[in-house]
Write a structure and sequence with these properties.
Two copies of one chain form a homodimer. Chain A is α/β, with parallel strands linked by helices and 200 residues long. Chain A has helices spanning 5-14, 22-35, 37-53, 70-73, 75-79, 89-98, 125-133, 148-163, 186-194, and strands at residues 55-56, 63-64, 82-86, 104-107, 139-142, 167-170. Chain A folds into two domains: 5-53, RecR Domain 1 (Helicase, Ruva Protein, domain 3, Orthogonal Bundle); 66-170, Dna Topoisomerase Vi A Subunit, Chain: A, domain 2 (3-Layer(aba) Sandwich), CATH 3.40.1360.10.
């Protein structure tokens, strides 16, 4: 095939994007070269900047290019005494969109997975334990994913909270609002039954 | 929403990619930051290099970082006296994959579209006319897309070839190999009928 090295290098590099196969990579490369050189240039700069400069917030471990993220710096959120533990920074975005939660976060960047060598240290739970020990935390809300690994991780953190006399709660699992009962899987339904609430 | 400026800049920049909406851009940004910094860095460099250095081949106008592309430099292809006119560099890739065509190409980078201000000069047809005038071209194969604009462009170039006494041909249109008749659109079918060949 006759692609010059610069073009084929670009096509190859684009394949690192998740969900982009060889055909899409080619289409994207030609689109940028033909119609959007400024966009491509801008993307190149943003990528280089982000990969070099974005690190983790020292308190909550989310992505952030300064030492602490805006949420951790907010005095109001610090005073709330609430910490919500999530698996990834995208979970923060989803929760922030509801506008319901006014506390701080702690991002694990994964879940416990001993077979892959991911233990408490890899999830930054030493930093989290320091925060529990400081006495500024009143309640920990465990919002890890409702998978086996997520549940295990939540359980582990709940034990840690108990050791430091901090109350911990798990977000509710059940039938999604607007969902239909016959389309919901059995696991979710049994969660919905065991977590039922009295109404009168 | 609480994305730091570096991250949100990256998400915004990723949206210049065709087919990438806000959700996908976010997913890609977090994927690169979390799991593939090297890939992201490499992509940033390739993009910056490509956007700055890739220009057009001076003979065929395809993308190329040197003055002339490999196909135009090949003596064998130059001797063939064949030029295939296509609308975009991706068409070259498709034709090269068949391995059938051993001549050179000329890439229009679009089609005639007077309302958008795209005339013969914008398609580089002045360069093409020089090549016709040089006498090195025996036959021009018109492989523009079978759309109204593509047909008009092909017609225009055919007239240009006639003026310089160079024979021109149009690639065949009809039912695709392996296609089923009842799934083929009417336009293609009528092309297939008017372009029928005698078999005995």
């Amino acid at each position: 095939m006759k692609l010059t090295s610069g073009v084929s290098q670009l096509v190859e590099a684009l394949r690192c994007l998740p969900g982009i196969g060889p055909k899409s990579a080619q289409r994207i490369a030609f689109h940028l070269l033909e119609h959007d050189r400024d966009g491509g240039r801008q993307l190149g700069q943003s990528l280089t900047f982000a990969m070099e400069n974005i690190g983790h917030c020292k308190s909550c471990r989310t992505f952030c290019e300064s030492e602490q993220c805006d949420i951790c710096l907010s005095a109001k959120r610090q005073d709330s005494g609430l910490i919500c533990v999530v698996e990834s920074p995208t979970d923060i975005l989803a929760i922030e969109q509801t506008g319901q939660f006014q506390g701080r976060y702690f991002v694990l960047m994964g879940h416990l997975s001993p077979l892959d060598g991911i233990g408490p240290m890899e999830l930054g739970l030493d930093i989290f334990e320091q925060q529990l020990r400081s006495g500024a935390v009143e309640e920990v809300i465990l919002a890890t994913n409702p998978t086996v690994e997520g549940e295990t991780t939540a359980h582990f953190i709940a034990d840690m909270c108990a050791k430091h006399d901090v109350s911990a709660s798990r977000i509710a699992h059940g039938v999604p609002v607007g969902g239909e009962l016959d389309l919901v899987d059995g696991m979710t339904l049994s969660h919905a039954f065991s977590g039922r609430k009295k109404v009168n």
